[in-house]
Design goal:
The protein has helices spanning 18-31, 81-88, 109-112, 127-139, 191-199, 242-249; strands at residues 2-9, 48-50, 59-68, 96-104, 113-123, 144-149, 152-157, 162-168, 175-183, 209-222, 225-227. The longest helix is centred in the N-terminal third of the chain and has 14 residues, at 18-31. The strands form 2 sheets. Strands 1, 2, 3, 4, 5, 8, 9, 10 and 11 form a 9-stranded mixed sheet that branches. It has a two-stranded antiparallel ribbon with strand order 6-7. It contains 6 helices and 11 strands.
Length: 250
């Protein structure tokens, strides 16, 4: 029996790593006395499966974790997803807020999610200059960037993964929000990498720096449609049209 939770990670807790977040969930589940299933072997672990890893220091409105319950120990009230939201809340740290829960079938979140939405706060250049850099990047046929992979530096082309870029801010603002949508497969783009790519577009934005990042959505896409792994209303159905999904996420 697999239950998917959608949660937010906001505030100071953003500085905790993905591994620390996993430990937070394990402690919360244990303190809430939920009958979580465990793996076999000499060192059994609770069966938790997280979505795409969130960079340390970034916030998120759309994080997901799948938890497998031991059906032999499940009480009737423990299969009511909305009841589990309130049951877990007192045992999670400030800034980690469960927003929805639902029963789901099997399937790896890391393999199913194909795109993410981000809001990136950048500084070091005025809005007009950042807008020029965004236009230059979108018009480019390739966006080469050197980044580290398994301890080695390699040059990758980020352009195929960058789907959408736009700005929020006035022409003279020096702190600008970049709204982005990036693909996660075959390899994702981190917020810091996207800002580095923007900073290399024109001389006027050479000092551009990432001041904050918030993941706003994760998308599953199939057969021309897309939907969230779980929305705030606890819906997981794949029948949501792309337009309706975008409207709900905004």
């Amino acid at each position: 029996m697999r239950i998917r939770f959608r949660y937010a990670k906001l505030g100071k807790v953003r500085f905790t790593s993905q591994r620390d977040v996993a430990r937070m969930w394990e402690r919360a589940l244990r303190r809430a006395a939920l009958p979580v299933a465990y793996s076999a072997g000499f060192s059994p672990r609770p069966l938790l499966s997280f979505g795409l890893a969130l960079p340390t220091g970034a916030e998120s409105l759309a994080e997901f974790v799948d938890i497998v319950l031991d059906e032999g120990r499940v009480e009737p009230d423990e299969v009511v997803p909305h009841a589990l939201v309130g049951r877990l809340a007192p045992f999670l740290p400030d800034g980690v807020t469960v927003r929805a829960a639902a029963l789901v079938d099997g399937g790896s979140l890391q393999h199913e999610v194909t795109a993410c939405g981000w809001e990136l706060l950048v500084d070091g250049a005025r809005c007009a200059a950042v807008a020029e850099a965004v236009a230059s990047l979108l018009a480019a046929s390739s966006v080469p960037l050197v980044r580290e992979r398994k301890g080695r530096q390699a040059e990758d082309d980020l352009r195929p993964a960058i789907r959408e870029l736009s700005l929020v801010g006035g022409a003279e603002d020096e702190r600008v929000v970049v709204v982005a949508e990036v693909a996660t497969q075959p390899r994702g783009v981190r917020p810091a990498e996207l800002v580095r790519a923007l900073a290399e577009q024109t001389v006027d934005v050479a000092g551009l720096a990432l001041a904050g990042a918030c993941r706003t959505a994760q998308w599953i896409e199939r057969d021309g449609q897309r939907w969230e792994p779980l929305d705030d209303e606890g819906r997981t159905a794949g029948s949501v049209s792309a337009g309706a999904a975008r409207e709900r996420a905004s």
